[in-house]
Design a protein that fits this description.
alpha/beta, Rossmann fold, 2 domains, two-stranded antiparallel ribbon, 16 helices, globular, binds S-adenosylmethionine
């Protein structure tokens, strides 16, 4: 998913740095997991990962990509859903599913994305033009598909036709699929007032296939410091906090609503972008405040039982390098920190232009290391 601070392109840098430091796999805490890209990679390299984040969509990604080890069989679903069974009897359906690949996941994705009847719900009512106060986050058709898929996932889970693993895997695919057809410049703080080519494509579900890794990874929905305290001793704390004032809660409110659903508590939203009217204070991160970020770092380092800490931070962050290094030094066993640097080209959406264009600029990504025990 397009995500501020997504480290997918920096995974080789992070893994190389761990190798340079001679740190071998054990238990790791990916404290601000976001898309779960780092936790997933650590797991593939043999780490037992505990990941955390305050956002529910991140929790969905963590459950799908870090906790889940294999594609579920979907046997109960095939046995229990007559509509899916009917679809499976159709040669046209089976051909379309086969084009998605082999295995149990392909027909389920084909069914959700293409066979399920679009049906208005919360997303169509609030984030698509016909009924959604003119908001143009999704076309009406895509919004109704998101609604229908989200509702069906909930029904399947409530009826016991899918377990947690399948639920999170499919929900992660829905959030990613919706992001690909969102009529935005990358974040949900605003929609674009004319349809972008990506928004006009029909939504699809293309799940990331779960990877096997060390057993026993876990995911926590909560504050990094709190989770670190609960986890106790671990080998590695990997920390990739927000580095500027942009609160993720305001930039990704729609993925958050899709992740939470609207079946138990209907969100009350308002304003041009349809933000939840009552801001959830627990989602406002101290890391996004120049005055509170240092305390958040010191508090987390004090709470963590990690032997090593590796912090991703970039050259434009709210925390000065000197402040960050001082906090790490104070928490370390030997009063030392080490810094690793890699230059990379970042592509930014040019928001002012109707046809989304990207311009590249240089950015220095930094990794700070300290030995805590
Ligand atoms: C830079 S992003 C992490 C990106 C991630 N490494 C990736 O590759 O996608 C920062 C994340 O920190 C989360 N966050 C902010 N405050 C937090 C807190 N107090 N505890 C845990 N996570 C927090 C945000 O929700 C966001 O997902």
């Amino acid at each position: 998913m397009r995500y501020i601070g997504n480290k997918t392109r920096l995974l080789p840098f992070i893994m190389d740095t761990l190798a340079d430091l001679g740190i071998s796999p054990g238990a790791a805490h990916d404290a601000c997991a976001g898309t779960a890209a780092v936790g997933r990679e650590l797991k593939v390299h043999g780490w037992r990962v505990a990941s955390s984040d305050i956002m529910t969509y991140s929790h969905v990604f963590q459950r799908a990509y870090v906790v889940l080890q294999r594609v579920p069989s979907f046997a109960e679903l095939r046995a229990g859903d007559p509509e899916l069974r009917r679809a499976l009897r159709s040669p046209r359906f089976r051909e379309a599913a086969a084009r998605r690949g082999t295995g149990a996941l392909a027909p389920v994705c084909e069914y959700l994305a293409r066979w399920l009847e679009p049906r208005g719900g919360f997303i169509a009512s609030h984030y698509a033009p016909a009924r959604g106060a003119g908001r143009m986050y999704f076309t009406d058709e895509n919004a109704m598909r998101i609604d229908a898929i989200r509702r069906r996932l909930d029904e399947w889970r409530t009826e016991g036709l899918i377990g947690d693993g399948a639920f999170y895997l499919l929900l992660a695919a829905l959030i990613e699929g919706a992001d690909r057809v969102a009529n935005t410049a990358g974040v949900y703080a605003a929609y674009i007032k004319s349809w972008q080519p990506n928004a006009l494509r029909p939504i699809d579900l293309v799940p990331l296939v779960p990877t096997r890794g060390a057993k026993g990874s876990s995911a926590y929905l909560g504050d990094a410091e709190q989770v670190a305290g609960d986890l106790g001793p671990v080998e590695l704390l990997y920390l990739d906090p927000p580095y500027n004032a942009r609160q993720y809660t305001g930039y990704y409110h729609i993925p958050e609503i899709i992740a939470r659903g609207w079946f138990d508590t209907v969100p009350v939203i308002a304003g041009k972008t349809g933000l939840p009217r009552v801001a959830d204070r627990s989602l406002r991160s101290a890391w996004c405040s120049a005055g509170r970020a240092e305390q958040a770092l010191r508090g987390l380092l004090a709470a963590s039982g990690a032997r090593h800490v590796l912090v991703s931070y970039n050259s434009e962050g709210l925390l000065d390098a000197s402040v960050l290094e001082a906090a790490l030094r104070d928490a370390s066993v030997d009063g030392r920190t080490r810094t690793f640097t890699r230059e990379y080209r970042r592509y930014r959406a040019d928001r002012d232009h109707i046809n989304r264009r990207y311009r590249a600029d240089g950015l220095r990504e930094l990794l700070y290391y300290a030995k805590l025990r």
